[in-house]
Design a protein that fits this description.
homodimer, eight-stranded parallel β-barrel, three-stranded antiparallel sheet, 17 strands, globular
Chain lengths: 624, 624
């Protein structure tokens, strides 16, 4: 039966992903740290061990947890944070009407304030630094690092079955991830754990090229939301299918309240572009933006628990004219807001000028930078141009300044880039930004397929992920055309999940192949349900199967719709194996290439005995 | 309005693709050869020239042509073929009941014989050779080569506007394609023009790595076809969206008659896997296959006009045991039929043994070989293994043997290959097969996304196309799960079209960028209809747009649904340009990087005069 996910009264999607069970694995080094994973159980009798997969879905897929979005998720990290003794609770900044847009919140649209707002957020004690990078540089292994190590090790217990194989372009992926390895990666800036101390609900995760490739999904408020549950559901739906982080790109009214609902219910890090909210506070007039309004917005979001900020501080005044000759100019919204401000005042960007002050804020809450690429190319024609790379080198300069204060940094990247120019993006980023994690949007490898830009960009995403990009920002089929609906979000997430996994395979990530091999064996052995359950989207796989062969019996039948019941190429392979076995020889030696002629008649006889009764006949097409 | 394609009484899809006009361009060197192209007309007033695109759709999109599938298409090439004076007409082999399956044709299913079957097919005169390779090696430039040259030159008239840019991995793509270049590529085996002299309805096209990357769509008969028109429609639908060749993989009953209908109505080359039909003739019992039955099938299909044959002659007896230790064994249907035959008789493959005799047949009709990769990997685990490459080197040996008789050859390739192992496939193929065109199925870059295998394989297809593969065999979303329907075929074709185009861009194919740039300019200038019409799938692009902004006025509005009417990053860029222009300086110099501070107040004043009145405000999300 197809998976019809249950919804709670407040209409967020809950219940296990089909064929799967939520498990909590005690971490190496600290058994109190229990890491959530998903285990896919295969057919009894198949002799197959359950397959453990990385699980971004949080408690929503755990039947043992009662979900109540009015209360928010349990505060997994609260004790770890407080236990370090370097934070103070203090009275939060008062919420202002303009935090929800210039006209204030719109209660008619069903967006109420979250009923259990934290009135006393946490902040680093005066003079303290609470970033994971700060701890890491001082040799401290945090619970967050322990959690990440176990989470990334997923499946590596089976590594001994595999010969590692891949091309990692200079990455240094270990056989096993230890907490110490996580620490060292964070200390040198090669990975980040985005986890604001005011978002204790989050399950720690790492972004870095020596870890599994991650993906981000974007959500945003909608003017016609029927309830806050609808807004929360967008996040829940994204993480169900595999989003590792979610960016809330809401604009207009209700921004503050919507974000609060999302944060309190999110087990994944939440990123934002604070300039969007700041712009709302000045009625959408970019030139009216000031450092003071922007700074106040950062504090507002820091106290709520935003885990990473996109800051377009690399859009310097001098670079803006470089975009005038482009085919598509400036396509980043944040980039164009800053360009407008800079041009209007003819001043250097206030984000650039006040960068160290922003870093001070990040340091006090452990917010990671996602340094925005406001000048990224918006078309194949504009890829890898002067404006783009000028900004990138400024982002590199800012990375080093952030690292001086031990603030975690990742770097945003393009955009639209033809395949032959993708690698240069990765190489320049590594060089300019000292191996800080790269976080790219696609890139799209051609401009001519609107409606299919999840695919044009999925190609670029898989490639740049292979080359070393640590997180891929998804693109949905609606890109350039309209706003994604629920189905578009799912297609976007699954497409990026498969691109990230293809990258992990190609990098030679240990044990990435476990899932491919389990699925291929299920396919070969006609374990249809196992094939569905092991796939990234079991529902769609089953639906497609059922469109051709709807009968329930067809799911256990040892044939498929391509060749029908009487002939199957996979059965032939079984005969090859049986024949080899009957001869009592290792199958790879059973006929030596130079020995073909010998004993042909005799072997032919053996074969007729073993199983040449197999039927062939009606069927379909050559399927791969 | 969305494009609702018309259908003729016999229900094949006709009518222009929206926004496009069929044109016929006189070829350089022979104005009697008129090459079909599609011209996309852009908004009057945009100042944009029409964009010419490669057109595979044949007369079906030409309103000037009355389509009658009972008669078939006009015989474009008939005079060229007969004019060369090296063919004879002769009495065709009599159609046997078993040509339509062991039970003969099933007239109840609506498959009638084509009413105008050619009773007198053509064949090379005794001792003659009618292949394009034969002519090419002797310095003869045929009309087919002239046609191909003009067709490939598409858009290159505008090449002077472009600086060529790409990485072609040793291909030799010229600025302009001359008929002589086509001849030389065919002479050295680097390209083929598949065009059986008994398929004069086809519009010549080339497959080779110095030409545009091509794509193939597979079709097959269905047991529940309501009419022959449904079978013809599958081909018509595939080529409408861009299939350059179509393979008819029908099995079961009505094979012969269905193929006749398809060939007589197809403007693109048709490929088959003759062993499928031969197997039907022996009731599906692989071990009952004989060379005589196979040979008779080849003649049957040659006389009908099949343009290329997939022949799995590289599945040698000695290689079969190499598959025993694989995760997914032999997944090619043709490969497994031959494996079964070889094992059963314990004899070398009759395809391998009789290869030169098959070549004799190909030579007499100009049928190209598509040497099948019967041992291709069916999973990531099996990629690039001994069995696969052993077969590949045999295909290289057979290529040289075919070339000795001047028969055109392409080589089939995998399959399932992780990204880091794709390039090796291309390199070994070039080395083993003397640069004969490579024709791959995907490859799929991971096994874990059934339901999304058009995407897992589109990634691999784009990459291997970039590396040098000449034709990409499509994969639909139903791969591994069920039989594709009409929508699946379209999604598969468009996905492969975008992958092929991404490859052309990355190879630095001259003028490939013309379409991307035209679309990006349309996007930047909010010419929505132009953006739809320039896309690979105008219908889907418009539908997606309309889901968010359905009003007809929104198609001419200078904003999009992402940012709403009051703010747009693209407008900011226009302001940057206007500002630069008003200063009367070249835009790339208007502020020198080292001169930022100077005259800030003055410039700010200029900007306020030019256009800072632009509103910003309500909106959506950062869109790429």
């Amino acid at each position: 039966m197809a998976d019809i996910p249950a919804r709670t009264e407040l209409t967020v999607t809950t219940g296990p992903i089909r064929g799967s069970k939520k498990i909590h694995v005690p971490a190496q080094g600290n058994a109190d740290v229990r890491v959530a994973m998903r285990e896919i159980h295969l057919e009894p009798g198949s002799g197959e061990a359950p397959v453990r997969v990385y699980d971004t879905s949080g408690p929503y897929t755990d039947p043992a947890v009662k979900i109540d979005i009015m209360r928010g998720l349990p505060q997994l990290r609260r004790d770890w944070i407080v236990g370090r003794g370097d934070v103070d609770a203090y009275d939060a900044r008062a919420v202002k009407p303009e935090d929800n847009g210039l006209s204030g919140p719109d209660r008619a649209k069903g967006v109420e304030p979250f009923p259990h707002v934290v009135r006393q957020p946490l902040r680093a004690k005066s003079g303290a630094n609470v970033t994971q990078m700060y701890y890491a540089k001082r040799g401290i292994i945090t619970e967050e690092m322990i959690y990440v190590a176990e989470r990334e090790n997923l499946g590596r217990a089976r590594l001994k079955e595999y010969i590692r194989d891949g091309e990692d372009f200079g990455a240094e992926i270990p056989d096993y991830v230890t907490p110490e390895f996580v620490r060292s990666e964070i200390a040198r800036g090669r990975a980040i754990i985005p986890n604001n101390i005011n978002h204790p609900e989050s399950e720690p995760m790492a972004i870095g090229r020596n870890f599994l490739v991650k993906i981000n999904a974007n959500i945003g408020n909608s003017a016609v939301a029927s309830s806050v549950a609808e807004e929360v559901e967008k996040m829940v739906w994204s993480i169900r299918w595999g989003a590792d982080t979610v960016m809330d790109l809401s604009t207009g009214r209700n921004i503050h309240d919507t974000r609060e609902w999302i944060l309190r219910n999110s087990p994944v890090p939440i990123g934002t572009v604070p300039i969007y909210q700041a712009l709302e506070k000045v009625g959408g007039i970019a030139e009216d933006l000031t450092w003071e309004i922007f700074r106040d917005t950062l504090i507002e979001q820091a106290e709520q628990g935003v885990d990473y900020f996109t800051i377009h501080a690399g859009v310097r005044l001098a670079y803006i004219p470089m975009t005038a000759k482009r085919v598509t100019g400036i396509v980043s919204r944040g980039g164009s807001i800053m360009a407008k401000w800079c041009l209007s005042h003819h001043k250097e960007s206030f984000l650039y000028e006040h960068f160290d002050e922003i870093t001070e804020i990040c340091k006090a809450y452990d917010i990671a930078y996602s340094l925005g690429d406001g000048l990224r190319p918006g078309s194949i024609a504009d890829a890898n141009d002067e404006a783009q790379f000028s900004e990138l080198y400024t982002l590199g300069e800012l990375t080093k300044r952030a690292w001086e204060q031990d603030v975690q940094v990742m770097i945003e990247g393009p955009g639209h880039v033809p395949m032959h120019k993708i690698k240069q993006n990765m190489e320049k980023q590594l060089e300019a930004c000292g191996e800080a994690p790269f976080y790219t949007l696609g890139p799209l490898t051609t401009d001519i397929a609107p409606g299919y830009d999840h695919i044009t960009s999925g190609i670029g995403a898989a490639m740049i992920g292979w080359y070393g990009t640590a997180m891929l920002c998804y693109v949905t089929p609606k890109e350039h055309l309209g706003l994604p609906d629920r189905d578009d979000v799912k297609v976007g997430v699954v497409t990026y999940k498969l691109a990230a996994h293809a990258a992990d395979l190609a990098k030679g990530h240990p044990a990435a192949k476990v899932r491919d091999d389990a699925l291929s064996r299920a396919r070969f052995e006609f374990r249809w349900r196992d094939q569905f359950n092991l796939s990234l989207d079991p529902e769609t796989a089953e639906q497609y199967h059922d469109q051709t062969l709807p009968a329930e019996g067809a799911k256990t039948a040892h044939f498929c719709s391509m060749c029908g019941p009487k002939f199957c190429s996979m059965k032939i392979t079984q005969e090859v194996r049986d024949f080899a076995a009957k001869q009592n020889q290792p199958s790879d030696q059973f006929i030596a290439a130079e020995d073909v002629e010998k004993g042909m008649a005799q072997m032919s006889e053996v074969f007729r005995e073993t199983g040449s009764e197999l039927y062939m006949g009606s069927g379909g097409r050559e399927h791969d």
